[in-house]
Write a structure and sequence with these properties.
By secondary structure, the chain is an alpha/beta fold. Among the domains are: about 100 residues, no CATH class; about 110 residues, Alpha-Beta Horseshoe (Leucine-rich repeat, LRR (right-handed beta-alpha superhelix)), CATH 3.80.10.10. Helix content is about 25%, strand content about 15%. The protein is built from 15 helices and 19 strands. It is globular. The two termini are about 50 Å apart.
Length: about 450
């Protein structure tokens, strides 16, 4: 007997095999995925023994029409459908899948533009999620008719025309336009009226400028905004989002025109829990003064902010809710900076990759951060065995990266071996670590990278 409490995945490499599964055990099929590599079908179903050696032939006496009818009923029961292609041989096109599954399906995903239909939702009265991995304006011509949609993701060569249609989706809460490089601020004017929108991602929409943020500033329910790699955005643009008082996540990764002035606007968004300033290399100590007002921050990424100094980290040291801090390539910070953050007792992840001025004394301060589970010291070439002995006090550490710490020797491995929770360690380019030393580290569950 098949036990519905257990779920399994079966991979079927041709359409006929999927027809057979649909015919033999239709009650167990709940989700299907097709892709263009050899018409490979993936189905989730209950209990693998329900489908025993029946994937190559259709049961005797079953006509093709009968199998087609049964298959249609299976598709009609789907709640999620991922369509990478249609079958030219069987007539199983994306359009037919949509029409068959319209009654119950809540999520569609389309992959590969040449099989992506001109989406016509028709009777998709329960459709909530729609994702186009690659598409153009034609595919979205009728998307406004899917009035039940709450989440839309589009990655392709769409223009401002598509945003006119998306602007009519009154229930939309999540919109992902990442990689849509033809969208401009004029297009964003059409989505400024989406009053329920809580999450917006415009990563790599490289034509969006400060004028685009003026339209985004109208979305007063936004809690998450990602404008990563929108390199035309400057301090003036950030002034438009100070009214987004519900924001909890802000990603400004790669917005290279932003300076301390722009961060003065960000400092007014007091609900922020996550801020990404990666590669915003114009910010300095004054910017961290504004960041230091965000007392709810749990995650702060300063990767590549090369002008950050020890004094700037004194403002970060007051953010006691921080659980993740990334200081990668902040090459001006030294041991004094680590002393200033010893009060971050909730810190679980600390990245000091290529902070070349940090030495053993700095690690003595890191040793006080006893809740750390991840520590990256890649490229900290001044660290010796003495410094690693302080790391041995971090009993909750799960991941440790010592790559390119060229001064450490086998003596460092003894305190590391006493870390009870450690599951991953990187010792790449540590030339003084010998095979004999590595042999002392080997234990069940520990992954060693060399």
């Amino acid at each position: 007997m098949c036990d519905s409490r257990y779920r399994h995945r079966v991979v079927i490499h041709d359409v006929v095999s999927f027809y057979v599964l649909a015919f033999v055990a239709p009650q167990y099929v709940t989700r299907m995925r097709s892709c263009s590599y050899g018409m490979r079908w993936i189905c989730d179903y209950a209990a693998a023994d329900c489908f025993v050696q029946r994937s190559t032939t259709i049961r005797d006496g079953a006509s093709r029409m009968e199998v087609d009818g049964r298959f249609k009923r299976i598709i009609a029961s789907l709640r999620h459908a991922t369509l990478a292609c249609g079958s030219r041989d069987t007539g199983l096109t994306a359009a037919r899948i949509i029409s068959w599954s319209a009654a119950r399906c809540v999520a569609f995903r389309f992959i590969r533009r040449h099989f992506c239909p001109q989406f016509q939702p028709g009777t998709c009265h329960q459709l909530q999620s729609l994702l186009f991995d690659t598409c153009d304006d034609k595919a979205l011509a009728h998307v406004a008719n899917a009035s039940t949609l709450t989440a839309v993701g589009i990655h392709g060569r769409i223009t401002n025309v598509s945003l006119i249609h998306i602007g009519g989706l009154a229930r939309l809460t999540t919109l992902d336009l990442s990689g849509c490089k033809l969208i401009t601020h004029a297009g964003l004017s059409h989505i400024g009226g989406l009053a329920r929108l809580t999450s917006l991602n415009v990563t790599w929409c490289i034509l969006i400028s400060d004028a685009g943020l003026s339209h985004i500033g109208r979305l007063r329910r936004l809690t998450s905004l990602n404008v990563s790699s929108c390199r035309l955005i400057s301090d003036a643009g950030l002034a438009y989002i100070i009214g987004l008082t519900r924001l909890t996540s802000l990603n400004l990764d790669g917005c290279v025109l932003i300076s301390d002035t722009g961060l003065s606007h960000v400092g007014r968004l007091v609900r922020l829990a996550s801020v990404n300033l990666k590669d915003c290399d114009r910010i300095s100590i004054a910017a961290l003064l504004h960041v230091g007002r965000l007392t709810r921050l749990t995650s702060l990424n300063l990767d590549g902010c090369a002008s950050i100094t020890d004094n700037g980290l004194s403002y970060v040291g007051g953010l006691t809710n921080l659980s993740s801090l990334n200081l990668r390539c902040c090459r001006l910070i030294s041991n004094a900076a680590l002393f200033r953050i010893t009060g971050l007792t909730n810190l679980a992840s600390l990245n000091l990759n290529w902070c070349n001025l940090i030495s053993d004394m700095g690690l003595s301060y890191v040793g006080r951060l006893t809740n750390l589970t991840s520590l990256n010291l890649d490229g900290c070439a001044c660290i010796t065995d003495t410094g690693v002995s302080h790391v041995g006090r971090l009993t909750r550490l799960i991941s440790l990266n010592l790559m390119s710490c060229v001064r450490i020797t086998d003596a460092s491995l003894a305190p590391i071996n006493r870390l009870p929770s450690l599951t991953s360690i990187n010792l790449g380019l540590c030339a003084r670590i010998t095979d004999a030393g590595l042999a002392s580290l080997h234990r069940v569950g520990l992954e060693i990278r060399r």
